[in-house]
Design goal:
348 residues; mainly alpha; globular
Length: 348
């Protein structure tokens, strides 16, 4: 194998490697931080949750909490797949004889695995706290185990962070096209998943109701900022990007014309990047300023068994709290993308 061939291979898989490496490094770093804090190497039977109740293993398998996240993670899965098709790979040809077929079995298996994570979580949560409380969590009544039920409160508790989550994902997909595809992209058949998922997000926001809590409540403000950096952008988004880039390279190959198209797209790409960057910058800046204006130490201690914790300690276990989210979103994105691609290729 020549050096140029190795370089080509590395360049092809480098985006996937980066998107996987960052979450892995963060999870390892978070584990090391907790090991130093608790002075233990084995943490899976050590209570690490802010409520002083759950061990690290129970945080990883936090079925009850995962069900609170299912609605938004389902919408997000549609959004990022739609974005990947909206800023789609500009194919000159699809070399079908060389490309592996997207089989119905692969699509079905990924869908079953995504649904299976939800079904298992419903069963485990209902066994622990009862079906009524499980359903209440799924329908966004919970922000915390110890707080009273309030319809739509969990959705509102992520409102601003979700806008940043969605906008940053679209921004990163476009940056990937600019770096990897010379700035060229075309709207593919299932690009309509992007506006459809955006409309679903708006409709659900209206359905669950809007208050000033996401903008004023200290608990909401701190939680949204932690979601942005403590799971959404740092792990969930990057895992989804890795899955989509890998699947595109494997099942959707084709020649890319790197001629004048990239030059023609430059101004349009910059305009799109600015549009996506505006909510990212303003909302993240707003959350940072608001949180810094709070008494952070007092707010951390008010969460429960968190006396003496630093901000890093609050983030460390939180990376693991969304473990089931990561699994669900990866399988769900895998399912939606392969299903859409299978339909597109069969009709092309």
């Amino acid at each position: 194998m020549t050096h140029s061939h190795i370089f080509k291979k590395l360049r092809k898989f480098l985006p996937v490697i980066i998107c996987l490496a960052i979450p892995i490094i963060l999870l390892i770093g978070a584990y090391i931080r907790m090991s130093l804090f608790y002075e233990k190497l084995w943490l899976f039977n050590t209570v690490v949750h802010e409520n002083g109740k759950y061990t690290l293993l129970e945080v990883i398998l936090y079925f009850r909490h995962f069900l609170w996240e299912v609605p938004i993670k389902g919408v997000y899965s549609l959004f990022i797949v739609g974005t990947f098709f909206y800023y789609g790979k500009p194919l000159v040809r699809i070399d079908k004889p060389q490309a592996p077929n997207v089989t119905a079995r692969q699509v079905l298996l990924s869908g079953v695995l995504a649904f299976g994570v939800v079904l298992l979580s419903v069963f485990m949560s209902a066994s622990d706290i009862g079906l009524k409380d499980t359903v209440m969590g799924l329908f966004q009544y919970r922000t915390h185990e110890l707080r009273p039920l309030e319809f739509g409160s969990h959705w509102r508790n992520h409102f601003l962070s979700n806008i940043v989550f969605f906008s940053t994902s679209a921004f990163c997909v476009l940056v990937y096209r600019m770096v990897n595809n010379g700035g060229q992209w075309v709207r593919r058949k299932f690009s309509n998943l992007l506006p459809v998922s955006a409309v679903i997000f708006v409709v659900l926001t209206l359905f669950f109701g809007m208050t000033m809590d996401p903008f004023e409540n200290p608990s909401y403000l701190g939680h949204q900022l932690r979601e942005v950096f403590g799971s959404d952008l740092s792990i969930t988004m990057l895992l989804c990007m890795a899955v989509l880039i890998f699947l595109e390279g494997k099942y959707d190959p084709g020649e890319i014309d790197s001629g004048r198209g990239g030059q023609r797209n430059y101004k349009r790409n910059v305009l799109f990047l600015v549009c996506w960057a505006v909510p990212i910058i303003f909302i993240t800046g707003f959350l940072v300023v608001k949180v810094l204006s709070l008494d952070i130490g007092a707010n951390i201690e008010s969460l429960g068994h968190t006396k003496g914790w630093s901000v890093l300690d609050l983030f460390a276990w939180h990376f693991f709290e969304h473990s089931l989210d990561y699994i669900f979103v990866v399988f769900n994105v895998y399912f939606i993308y392969l299903l859409a691609l299978r339909i597109e290729l069969k009709k092309s």
